[in-house]
Amino acid sequence: MNNQLAIMTTITLPLSFLRPALLTVLTACASFPHTGLAAKAPDSAADASAATTSGPAIPKSVFDDRAGKDPFFPNRVVTPVLAPAPTKKEIIVLKGVTGSSDRRVALINDRTFTKGEAGEIKVGTNMLTIRVVDIKERSATIEREGQTNELSVLENLLPLDGRK
Length: 164
Description:
It contains two helices and seven strands; from the N terminus they run H-H-E-E-E-E-E-E-E. The chain is of the alpha+beta class.
């Protein structure tokens, strides 16, 4: 290890004199390779273990995100917050029936169906596949996943969810 003595002096020079001197110093620093002024990294793993300080061992932080452990407060007991149950019930609505008695069309959740037709309707964020079995003057019978349900025309469609 080299023990070098650094001497600092303060010299006040005009700014016009310092610009070329600063440029010269920066050019010299960039031109010459860096020598022994910085600490050298150890060449092997044996030297690396010898270079470390022999202080108290620092425990490694372990974060298990599946268990919900906080790495900063590992002994804290976390109580999960239950999500509220959905308040709006998604339903299938027969909005209207039109057409003659031999060729009726039913409007179910903004999609038209004829007797015997199958298709997908949107219920909330889900797409459901239904088949219309029969359409009467004021109702329609649908089949979904093997279950048969009869939908009646709603008289007052506004407001369905309580909005004004």
